Amino acid sequence: MAPFSQKDSTCRCEWGPGAVAALAPADVIIVVDVFSFTTCVDVAVSRGAAILPYTWNDSSAAEFARTHGAELAGRRRQAQYSLAPQSYLKAPTGLRCVLPSPNGAQVTLAAGATGAVVLAGCLRNARAVAETAQQLGSSFSVIPAGERWLDGSLRPALEDALGAGAILSWLPAVRSPEADAALAIFERSRERLLATLDQCGSGRELEERGHDEDRFIAGQLNVSACVPRFDGVVFVAV
Question: For residues 82 and 178, what is the distance between their CA atoms, to the nearest angstrom?
Answer without folding.
Answer: 32
